[in-house]
Specification:
A hairpin with a 6-residue loop joins strand 4 (112-117) and strand 5 (124-130). Helix 1 (23-34) crosses helix 2 (40-47) and helix 1 packs across helix 3. The chain has 2 domains: 14-71, Orthogonal Bundle (Arc Repressor Mutant, subunit A), CATH 1.10.10; 76-157, Lrp/AsnC effector binding domain/regulation of amino acid metabolism (RAM) domain (Alpha-Beta Plaits, 2-Layer Sandwich), CATH 3.30.70.920. By secondary structure, it is an alpha+beta fold. The radius of gyration is 21 Å and the shape is elongated. 36% of the residues lie in helices and 20% in strands. The chain has helices at 23-34, 40-47, 51-63, 96-108, 133-145, 169-174, and strands at residues 14-16, 19-21, 83-91, 112-117, 124-130, 150-157. 12% of the residues are buried. It has a 4-stranded antiparallel beta sheet with strand order 4-5-3-6, with helices on one face. A two-stranded antiparallel ribbon has the order 1-2.
Length: 181
């Protein structure tokens, strides 16, 4: 088997939280982010450490919360057809109870796969999955009937994904340059 090393053009260290991340820690995070099922041997080989020190570093990153879990990427289109709708919500009033009421409903709605409060012209960005547009509209109608303070909503149906996942997030956070490629 042919071996190779991946060179990382990241800042040599990054200080956040409980420990200073050196280039090996960053390389471990980068590799695991791309392949959470990589073997200990292959991971060590890719970052240029022997297996034991690599494993110790990985376990420490887990224990300190730098690695919060391992997940499978599921190809949902193999399971069912669906549409993905991003909806911007503006609430009628902006009292703490209004936000709590809206957020409580969003956390309990199965079709909501992402919800975040934002600052700007709208109050929330919510991502829904539905079997089709009719099901999405029924869901919106139900939300409006619940009187959870929605003043307006703006729906955006996804036509195709361009960039997903957080695989580039680590590099973006640690790259010193802000120039676009």
């Amino acid at each position: 088997m042919r071996s190779f090393r991946v060179e990382y053009s990241l800042a040599p260290t990054a200080r956040r939280g409980d420990m200073e991340l050196d280039r090996y820690d960053i390389a471990i995070l980068n590799e695991l982010q791309q392949d959470g099922r990589i073997s200990k041997r292959d991971l060590a080989e890719k970052i240029g450490l022997s297996v034991s020190p690599c494993w110790v570093r990985m376990r420490k990153l887990e224990e300190l919360g730098y690695i919060s879990g391992y997940r499978a990427e599921i190809n949902y289109s193999r399971i069912a057809r669906y549409c993905y709708v991003t909806t911007l919500f503006r609430l009628k009033t902006h009292h703490a109870e209004d936000f709590r009421r809206f957020e409580k409903v969003m956390t309990k709605t199965a079709q909501v796969v992402h919800c975040e409060a934002v600052i700007g012209e709208v109050d929330y960005i919510v991502k829904f999955v539905a079997i089709d547009i009719d099901q999405y509209q029924q869901l919106i109608d139900q939300l409006l009937e619940q009187d959870i303070g929605i003043l307006a909503y703006f729906s955006h149906v996804r036509s195709k994904p361009i960039k997903e996942a957080e695989q580039g997030l680590l590099n973006a956070l640690l790259t010193e340059s802000t120039n676009p490629v």
